[in-house]
Amino acid sequence: MILQISVAYGHGAQAIVQWYYAVSNCWRFWGYTGWGRMSDNYRNGIDEGKPSSTSGILPSVLYLSGLHLHRHCCMKTYDHIILGTGQATGTLLGRLIPTGDSIAVIEGGKVGGSCVNYGCTPTKTMVASAKALHQARRGDFFGFETGDIKLNYARVRERMNEIRNGGSDGLTHWMESTENVELIRGWGEFAGPKTLRVNDQEITGKKIYINTGTHPFVPPIDGIKDVPHLDSGGLLDLEELPGHLLILGGGYIGVEFSQVFRRFGSKVTLIQGGEQLMPREDADIANTIQDFLEEEGVEVMLTSKATRAQYIDGQVHLTVMHDGETKVVTGTHLLVATGRRPNSKQLNLKAAGIEINGRGFIEVNDYCETVVEGVYALGDVNGHGAFTHTSVNDAEITLDHMFGGSRKISNRIPIYGLFTDPPLGRVGLTEKAALEKGYKIMKATRPMSKIARAKEMGETKGIAKLIVDADTDLILGASILGPGGDEIINMFAAIMHSGIPCRSYREVVLVHPTVSELMPWILDGLQLVE
Fold first, then answer.
1. The domain 417-528 belongs to what CATH superfamily?
2. Which member of 244, 317, 322, 512 is catalytic?
3. What span, in angstroms and rounded, lies between the C-alpha atoms of 212 and 218?
C-alpha cells in the first residue's frame, strides 16, 4: 500500500482521512459494498484535488485541511499474471494451477483468443462443411445419385458457433471454477516492470506472461477506410452468404477462404500481389494449389496490386494494377487478408522497459523472456511463429526454463498446415530456402496420382516433396500436399526431431493401403540437385 499525502495543515485530519481512505478502498477493491465505502463522487473529488459535492464530515475535513492525495491502495500481488487467453494460456495454467500459486488472467475480449474464436476452430468447421458439400456433389463419380444438393448456410454457421462457443465457454468455466485463478475482465497495460493496470486498478505479479496475439493488417489503399471490408473474424460472423467475395491477399487465410466460399456457392476472386500464391512455399507446391482452386472456379489474379477502393451502389470496386494494366474488379464483399500485426502498442511497454522490434513484435530470448527478468512474451506477439502449436510450444519452453530445463525456441523445427482440400502439411525448409542457406541437397517428389490409396479415394490432386541434406542424409524439409497431408507431415517432423538419417526409415514396414506409405517410395527417388 502506498499513500502519498501532502498536508497544508491539520495533521489530525490527515490521520483520519488516511485511515478511512485506505480501509474503504481496500474493501472496494475486494467488492465490499457495505459501510466504509467512499462514494464515487467523493473519490472523484479527491482525485481531482478538490472537495466533492458529497456531504459529510470527511469531505469537509479534507477540504479544510488542504489535503491532496494520490494513492495506489491495496495493490494485490499475484504469483503469476497472464495477459491474454490465447492458446499458450491453457498450457501455462495446466502447469501452474497444481502448484497452488495465485494466478490472475486478464482478458478484455472473448476467452480463447483468435484460434478458438476466429481462427483454427471455426474455420476448420467451415472447411469440413465445404468438403462434405463438395463430396456430395461428386456422387456420380462414386456411383450414387444425390439429387439437388442445397446449402443451408444458417445451419453451417450454427454448427460453427456451437463448436467455437463450446471451446470459449469451457476455458472460461475452467478458470472461473479454479480456486487459485482469478479471471479479470478488462484490457491490461503496464504501469511498471511488474505492475499492470486494468479497470483503473493496479496489480503486481512476480512473473508476467504477455500472450496478446495479433490483429489483422489493412494496407493503406486509397479509399479503403470508407469501404465496408471484412477480416477473417468478420467473414465468419457474416450471416448472409456473399454473392461475389473479393479476397485481397493470397496467403494461407485468403487461399483457405477462397475454396470454402466457392464451394458454398459464392463467386470468388483471389487477388495476390506476388507472382505466386503463398510466397513462402516452393513454386511447384503453390502452382498445384492454384490449379485445383481454378478448377473449382476460383478466379486467381497474380501480380495484382490494389490501388483504390470504392463503394458504389452497394458494390465494392477495387482498382487493380494487373499485368501492367489498370483493371476494376467488382464484388459484393471484400475480405482483407494481407497479414497480421502484433498486439503490443496498446500495452504501454515503455513503462516496463520492455523492448519491441521494428515491426512491433516483443523482443525475447531463447526462453521467451523479455529484457525484464520474469516477464515473458508468448505466441504470435513475439514474432517467433504465428500458429497455435508454436504458441503452445512457447509456453512449454517458458515453463521448462522456469523449472530448470533447457528447451529453446531456436531448437524448434517449423511446422504448419494449410487446410485446403486436399490439405498441405509443411515442415522445415523449402527447396528454395535450403539452397539459399547453402546446403547441398537431394530432393524427391511423388504425385498423389501414383499413390494407391489416393486413387482409391478419388483424391489424386497434390504432390509430396522431400528435401534432404546430401552430406548428412538428414531431412531438411518436407511438403505433403494431398489427402491426409496435414496429418502425415507430423511423421516427418518426428523423424527430423530424432536426428536419425532418413534412409534408416526405408526399412520400416508401413500399412497398405495408406497415403503415408509414400515414405519408402519417396526415399528411393532422392536425387542430387546440381
1. FAD/NAD-linked reductase, C-terminal dimerisation domain (3.30.390.30)
2. 512
3. 19
